[in-house]
User: Fold this.
Amino acid sequence: MAITFELKKNGNDDIGFLSFFEIGNNLRFQIERVYYVYGAKKNTKRGMHAHKELEQIVFCPYGAIRFRLDDANSTEEINLDEPNKGLYIGKGIWREMVWEEDNSVLVVAASMLYDEKDYIRDYGMFLSLVKSGYWKKE
Ligand code: T46
Assistant:
């Protein structure tokens, strides 16, 4: 359902590390927006929605954040607990995030500008759309 990837780490313990993602390598879409979430306490829950069209890659450069992904047929849990771990989330996936550590930072590169109309924030509606084949019509 989700694609996880590990970025190359350039550097060492003395000078620190540099990781990157780029089109044609780990990045499957042109980025139109970058946002980040910070200042959240341990056990904070966010997400609880799906997207109609949006594709994203997510990273946790500091701390640890657990993603629970659900495509209405199965669920998958991914713990982003290393700065060089990335996760691609396509359209039509319900996501929930739990902060495993205080002040963990979530960085997201998104394929579209922010549009509240792209959000499905009701789980029942999400299940109905999956059942109707909403994401299979393309
Ligand atoms: C997602 C997960 C991983 C904006 O005004 N612009 C933006 O670009 C975004 C992302 C949000 N907002 C507003 C909308 C809400 O009033 O910021 C507020 C918080 O957004 P939300 O409750 O959707 O945040 P999360 O952390 O639950 O979800 C976010 C993204 O919204 C979502 O697309 O996949 O991170």
User: Anything to note?
Assistant: Residues 2-132 form a domain with the Jelly Rolls fold (CATH 2.60.120.10). Residues 31 and 130 are 26 Å apart (CA to CA).
